[in-house]
Amino acid sequence: MKVICLKNHLKEAINLCEKITGKNLSLPILSNILISNENNRILRFTATNLELGIEVEIPAKVEKKGRVAVPGGVINNFLANFLVEENITFESQNNNLLISSLNSSTLIKGQSPEDFPILPKIKTDNQVLIPVADFVSGLKAVWYASSLSNIKPEIASIYLFSSKNEPLTFAATDSFRLAEKKINYSFPNLGSLLIPFRTAAEILRIFEGREGKIKLISDKNQISLELDNIKFIFRPTEGVFPDYQQIIPKKFVTDAIVDKNIFINSLKTAGIFSSKLNELNIIVGPDSNSVAIKTSNADVGEHTAQIPAKITGEELKMGFNHKYIFECLGHISSQKILLRFSGQGKPLLITGADDNSFQYLVMPMNTM
Question: Class assignment of domain 2-115?
Answer without folding.
Answer: alpha beta
